[in-house]
Amino acid sequence: MTTEPLSFPRRYARTQRFTLGAPRAFTVSPDGSRVVFLRSSSGTDRANQLWVLDVAEGQERVAADPRALLGGATERLSAAERARRERSREGGAGIVGYATDTAVELASFALSGRLFTAELRAGTARELRVPGPVIDPRPSPDGRLVAYVRGGALRVVGAEGDGDRALVEPESGADSGTVSYGLAEFIAAEEMGRSRGFWWSPEGDRLLVARVDDAPVRRWWISDPAQPERAPQQVGYPAAGTDNADVRLFVVSLDGVRTEVVWDRAHYPYLAHVHWSAAGAPLVLVQARDQRSQLFLAVDPDTGATRMVHADEDRQWLDLFPGVPCWSPAGQLVRIADEGGARVLAFGERPFTGPQLHVRAVLDVSDDDVLISASAGEAATAPETGEVHVYRVNELGVERLSQEPGVHAAVRGGGVTVLVSSVPDRPGAQVQVLREGKRTATVTSYAESPGLSPRVTLTEGGARKIPCALLMPTDYDGVTPLPVLMDPYGGPHGPRVLAAHNAHLTSQWFADQGFAVVVADGRGTPGRSPAWEKAVRDDFTLTLDDQIDALHGLAERFPLDLSRVAIRGWSFGGWLAGLAVLRRPDVFHAGIAGAPVTDWRLYDTHYTERYLGDPAAAAEAYAKSSLITDDGLSAPAEPHRPLMIVHGLADDNVVVAHALRLSSALLAAGRPHEVLPLSGVTHMTPQEQVAENLLLLQVDFLRRALRLG
C-alpha cells in the first residue's frame, strides 16, 4: 500500500511553516560551557523541550521534557497565558519560554499553569507546588528564589519550593479584574516589544514591578458566532484616541515594602523599556503619548527618585529597539539613535557607527565591544538586498562576524557566540557555536525540509530602488509573460524581502501555480534608513504608490503580464491589498485582504498614533488611509475588481469588525466581494486544516478572478 505524499500546503501547516523542530531561544552561560535552548523532537511536534548543549563535548541533552513532567496529560492554558502567546505570535506548545539565573544553572518555566524548575548542569527538572495558574516565572539572579505572577499578584517561592508568598497584590478594594502586578499591558506586549512586567535586582534582594490598571481602557466584546451557547469574551482594547491602561512602576523588596518610581507620567505615560544590571542604577525608557519625545531615566531604588540621563526628540516619531537602552559594564549609556540621517549605535552622546550601517538591535554588551544586528545603510558601497548581519563594534572600529550573504542573528556569553544563519540557498537556519570566531559545535535542527527551493531574484525596482524579491515558477521557461501576484506586507515592522530560503516558501508555492510573485518592501518598512521608514507619517497610502512603482520597474526587465495583476496580504498587507483594488483598479485586477485594518480608528493607540497621530486632531489622515470612508470608496467607481476578505472571528488584535465594516461599506456602494470568516481563528492561523485550505482557496479565487485556465 502506497501513501500519497502530503501537499506543500498541508506540510506547511503541519510543520508551522517548517519551524517545528528548529532550535530557538538560546542562552549562553557566563562561563561559556553551556548553551540552553528550546526545540521540539521532530518537524511535526509542537511540544518544545528544554535542551542543554555541552560546548566542550558538543553533546546535547534534554533538561526538561513537558510530556514527562505532565505525565502525558493534555496541556491546559489560562486565558492570560493564551493572551500572552497571542501577543508574541507563539504557536508552539510545551515549554515555549524560560528564564534562568545569572549563572545559567537554574531555569524556570510554566506548563499548564504549573511552576517547574530545571537544574541545567544536573539535567533534572521538578515541579514546585504553588497555587496557579502561574505566569512568567523568573529565578532570582542568585538562583535562591523564583518570582511569578498569579491572579494579578507577584509572588515568590524558594527554589526548593519553600516559603511561597505574595510580595505585592491588588490593593484591598481595588477591582482585581483590572489591576495586576508583574504583567505587561496589551500595547507593551503587542507594540513596544516589552513582554515582561517585573525585573530582579542584580543582588536578588528586590524587584522592579509594573502595576497596570486596565480600568480606563474601553471594553470590547469578542464572540464566536459558531458557538452561540458561549458568552462573549470581554477584552480591554485601547483603540486609537481612547484611554490607555494606567501604568506605574514600583521597587518591591522581599519583605513586600513598595517604593514608587517617580517620573512625569502625565507627559510620559508609556513605560517602554526597563533595564537593571550590575553596571548601574535601574534604567527606564519612558515615552510621550505622541512618541515624539522620550526620556532615559536612572532610578534610585531606595527612594524611587529618577534623574534624566538622556532625552530624545523627533518631528515624526521615535522608534524602540531590542536590547537598548542599557549600561555598558563601564557604566556608559548604550542606545540606538537616528543621527545625521542614519541609524547609529551610540555610547552616551557619541555615535560609534555611521551611515554605512543601519543598526537594528543591540545583541550583547561586554567590556571589549558591543554586538549588534545591522543591515547596509544608504551610504553603503553596494546594496545587500535582504541581508542582515552581525557586527562587533568598539573603539577600534566595526567588524562583521557573519560572512555568508543571508539573515543572521546571535546570542553571546562567556566568550561563546551562538550564530543563527538563514541563507537563500539552504533550507532553515544553521546554528553555529563559535569561540574566538571559530566553530566549536553546531546545534542540530529537526525541522523538516520544505521540499521546494525558492527561485528568487533579490533586486531593486522602480525609481526609488525599492527592495524586491521576484519569484518565478520552478519550471519557468524565462520567456512567457506571467500573471503577477503581489505578495507584500509593505508596512512598519514587517520586512519581507529577506535573503533567506524559508522566507519565500509560500511565495514560491504561489509562483508554482503559474504566477510571477513580487514581494516589495516600500517606504515604511524597516531596514534602510530613518527617512525611508518615516516617510509614511500621516499617510499610509504612500505604501501603495511604492508597490506600483516596484511592479512597473520590474516589468521593464522581466516578462510580467500587467493585464493580469493580483495582490494578497495579511494584516497591514491585507489593508494594502484592499486599498489596491479600491484605489487603483487600473493596476490591480483582484485582491485578497486577510485580517485587514480597514479603519485605523479601530486599531491600537501606540501603533496607530505613532504614524497617523491623534484621530481627534488628524481626522484627514485617518480618512485618507481608511478603506471604509468616502476617501476609501468614492473613486474610482469602475471597474469593480474582485476582492476576497478573510478574517478570524476570534482575532483580538485586528478585530473582525474591520472586515464586517468593510463588507457593509462595499455592499452599500454596490461593489461585489467575497467574505471568508474563519471561526475560532485569531490573528494567527495555527490550525492545520485552516492554514492548508486557506492557501488552496486563495489560489482558486485568483484563478477565477484573473480568468486563468
From TrEMBL:
PROSITE patterns with a match to the protein in the record: PRO_ENDOPEP_SER
Q: Residue limits of the Peptidase S9 prolyl oligopeptidase catalytic domain?
A: 506-706
InterPro entries xref list: AB_hydrolase_fold (IPR029058), Pept_S9_AS (IPR002471), Peptidase_S9_cat (IPR001375), Peptidase_S9A (IPR002470), Peptidase_S9B_N (IPR002469), Serine_Prot_S9B/DPPIV (IPR050278), WD40 (IPR011659)
Task: Show the GO MF annotations.
Answer: dipeptidyl-peptidase activity; serine-type endopeptidase activity
Q: Name one GO biological process term.
A: proteolysis
**Keyword annotations of the record:** Hydrolase, Protease
* Highest taxon listed in the record's lineage: Bacteria
Pfam families given in the database record: DPPIV_N, PD40, Peptidase_S9
Where is the Dipeptidylpeptidase IV N-terminal domain positioned along the sequence?
112-355
Q: Which PANTHER family match?
A: DIPEPTIDYL PEPTIDASE 9 (PTHR11731:SF193), PROTEASE FAMILY S9B,C DIPEPTIDYL-PEPTIDASE IV-RELATED (PTHR11731)
The protein, known as:
Peptidase
Origin organism of this chain? Streptomyces olivochromogenes
